[in-house]
Amino acid sequence: MTKWFNVGKIVNTHGLNGEVRVISKTDFAEERYKKGNRLYLFVNEKEPIQLTIKSHRTHKNFDLLTFEGYENINAVEEWKNNLLKITEDQLTDLDEGEYYFYEIVGCKVITTAGEEIGVVKEILTPGANDVWVVKGEKGKEHLIPYIDEIVMNINVKEKVITIEPMEGLLS
Q1: Are 150 and 165 in contact (CB under 8 A)?
Q2: Which residue in 22, 55, 64, 113 is deepest, having the highest Cβ count within 10 Å?
Q3: pLDDT at residue 107 in the model
Q4: Is there a domain that residue 73 lies in?
Q5: Cβ–Cβ under 8 Å, residues 14 and 20
C-alpha cells in the first residue's frame, strides 16, 4: 500500500495562467517544487492526479506553482482546498540531525530532568528556526524553538525528544 505525505494545500488560484497558491507543509520547498518534479493532487477522495511541476516561485507567504498541461485558470479552479502529496519513495535521505516534520510531530517532549512536557502537535516555520507546538496536559501549549541550546536529543524511533528548557520557556 502506498504511504502518502502531505507537502501542501492549494488555497487559491493566482492569475489566469493556471498558477495556484499553495500553503506549504514541506520542510524543503525549493527542492520539493523543482521544475519537473511529480506531485499528486487528491481531489474528493478519488484516485490522485499525477502532476508535473512546470514552475515555482514564492509570493508573500505562499508558494506559487504551475503544472504541465494545466496552463489555464479554468483547469485548476476546482483544485482549491485540496492537498498535494508525495509518495514515500520520493522522500530523500536527510543529513544527520535533519528530520522530516512527520518524524517530529507526535513525539513526546521531556526535559533533561525527566519532566514530561507534552507531545509535538505542529511545527511552525516563522523564520530562522522552526518552532514546535507542544500540547501538554490540560491542553496547555508550549512553543519550543528548535535550536541546539534547547533541543538536546531527538530519538525518532522511540518518539522522544529531550530538551533543556531555558528560563521562562515553560511558564
Answers
A1: yes
A2: 22
A3: 97
A4: yes
A5: yes
The confidence band for 29, taking pLDDT boundaries of 50, 70 and 90, is confident
Same domain flag for 55 and 109: no
CB-CB contact of 61 with 45 (8 Å): no
Residue 27 belongs to domain with CATH number = 2.40.30.60
CA dihedral 127, 15, 10, 103 (to 10 degrees): -30
Q: Is residue 157 part of a domain?
A: yes
Same domain, residue pair 8 and 85: yes
- From the list 91, 92, 101, the residue with the least C-alpha distance to 3 is 91
Instruction: Report the number of distinct structural domains present in the chain.
Output: 2
- Domain extent, residue 139, equals 101-163
Instruction: Report the alpha-carbon distance of residue 89 to residue 41 in Å, rounded.
Output: 16
* Cell (9 digits) for 3: 504511504
Write out pLDDT tens, residues 31-73.
899 999 999 999 876 789 999 999 999 998 899 999 999 999 9
Which of 49, 62, 48 minimizes the C-alpha distance to 14? 62
The answer to whether residue 171 is domain-embedded is no
**Distance in angstroms (rounded) separating the CA atoms of residues 52 and 55:** 9
Any bridge partners for residue 154, and if so which?
161
* Other beta carbons less than 10 A from residue 33's beta carbon: 23
